[in-house]
Amino acid sequence: MKNSKLIVDYDYDFEVLAIISSVKDYKLAWALNKSLNINLCKTSDLCLDFVKDSRLLISNFIFETEYTTFRLLKNKSYEFAKNPKPYLLPELKEYDYIIKISGEHTSLNAENTLENSKSLSVVEYIKQIDIHNLKSKENLIF
Question: Where are the beta strands (DSSP E) in 35-89?
Answer without folding.
Answer: 41-49, 55-64, 68-74
